[in-house]
Design goal:
By secondary structure, the protein is α/β, with parallel strands linked by helices. The chain contains 5 helices and 7 strands. The N and C termini lie far apart (about 50 Å).
Length: about 160
């Protein structure tokens, strides 16, 4: 039994890294449901790979999530402030089919960044999202530079954005 404990010791002492930090950001293509570059057309899609060369902030959220309601205006403020400096913010709605309307949620809160819908949860699984809200910051080169779960204040979020730019 003691030998098994020693076998685990090296893993316990390693510094913990959030899922995906330092790795290439997994690509996805999801339906665009709000705040497209013009009006959101039927069957419009957004692909993360098309944003390569720009820093990206992904905000995984759901309409039923109270902390997400707190996080959304903070993310929108950062999106507006850093848009002209090369940051693209994308909201990734994780609601199930009967859970909420992300387009109405975005409109009621005045959110200006594009919102995509991850109904099947494939994008959330690819990033290891297990709690909401989860923010994923991706560098211009397509590497995940930070992952934060829970409400992240504006100052910390801006620090992470600077790191990605």
């Amino acid at each position: 039994m003691l030998i098994g404990g020693f076998a685990l010791l090296p893993r316990v002492l390693q510094p913990l890294r959030p899922a995906g930090v330092g790795r290439d950001a997994p690509d996805w293509m999801l339906p665009l449901v709000a705040n497209g570059s013009s009006s959101v057309e039927a069957n419009a899609k957004m692909r993360l790979g098309d944003l390569r060369g720009q820093a990206v902030l992904l905000d995984f959220w759901a309409t039923w999530c109270e902390p997400c309601r707190i996080q959304a205006p903070i993310v929108d403020q950062v999106a507006r402030r850093w848009r002209d400096r090369g940051l693209v913010v994308v909201g990734v709605d994780t609601d199930g089919p009967e859970q909420g309307n992300p387009e109405a949620f975005a409109a009621s809160r005045g959110l200006t960044y594009p919102i995509v819908q991850d109904r099947g949860g494939a994008a959330a699984r690819a990033y290891g999202v297990d709690a909401l809200p989860t923010l994923v910051v991706i560098s211009r080169s397509g590497k995940v530079v930070a992952v934060r779960t829970g409400v992240t204040d504006g100052g910390e979020l801006e620090r992470l954005v600077r790191q990605a730019l």
